[in-house]
Amino acid sequence: MQSSATKDETPIATSLSQSNGKPTKVLVLNSNFVPINICSWRRAMILLFKQKAESLEKSCYIIHTRHVLPYVIRLHRYIPLPFNDIVLSRKNIFLRDNFKCQYCGKNGNLTIDHVIPRSRGGKDSWENVAVSCVRCNNRKGDK
């Protein structure tokens, strides 16, 4: 008879397929340690079993009493990826700045601020725009 502590320490694979607080996603790194994807734990285990990847960081969860679930895996072969330039959009700026004002840290009633205003020659570029709350944007004004 197993104790309940043993069950909690070694959850089986069926409980990992549900997103109930346990890790279900695994970070996949290229052979040069550049992140390329996030995959399911099942796909990561397949890559490990086929010896196409190695586990870099392991979790405390055990699958079928023998295999430890990985958090991060690295592929053995380099996968060339095309360079994708990220589009400068309102959504991407908010995502980059984590939906917080870059001046005061608040996260309500946000706008886009040009660090060097367009009226003074500021461009629409990643280096010149930031998320700011209306209060900070008005306080900064055309400065």
Task: Please specify the SSE layout and strand pairing.
Layout: H1 4-9, H2 13-16, E1 25-29, E2 35-40, H3 41-49, E3 53-63, E4 67-75, H4 90-96, E5 110-114, E6 129-133, H5 134-140
Parallel strand pairs: 1-4
Antiparallel strand pairs: 1-2, 3-4, 5-6
Major sheet attributes: 4 strands, mixed
Helix content: 10-25%
Q: How many strands in all?
A: 6
Radius of gyration: 23 Å
Instruction: Tell the overall outline.
Output: elongated
- Strands side by side in the biggest sheet: 2-1-4-3
Tally the helices.
Answer: 5
What order do the SSEs take from the amino end to the carboxyl end, as H and E? HHEEHEEHEEH
- Cα distance, first to last residue? 72 Å
Rounded mean pLDDT score = 84
Low-confidence residue ranges:
1-19
Helix-strand makeup class: alpha+beta
Strand content: 25-35%
Keywords, please?
143 residues; alpha+beta; 5 helices; 6 strands; elongated; disordered N terminus
Describe this protein's structure.
There is one protein chain. With 143 residues, the protein is an alpha+beta fold. The chain is 23% helix and 29% strand. It has five helices and six strands, in the order ααββαββαββα. It has a four-stranded mixed sheet with strand order 2-1-4-3, covered by helices on one side. The chain has a two-stranded antiparallel ribbon with strand order 5-6. The protein is elongated, with a radius of gyration of 23 Å. The N and C termini lie far apart (72 Å). Mean pLDDT is 84; it is low at 1-19.
Short description:
By secondary structure, the chain is α+β, with helices and mostly antiparallel strands. It has helices spanning 4-9, 13-16, 41-49, 90-96, 134-140, and strands at residues 25-29, 35-40, 53-63, 67-75, 110-114, 129-133.
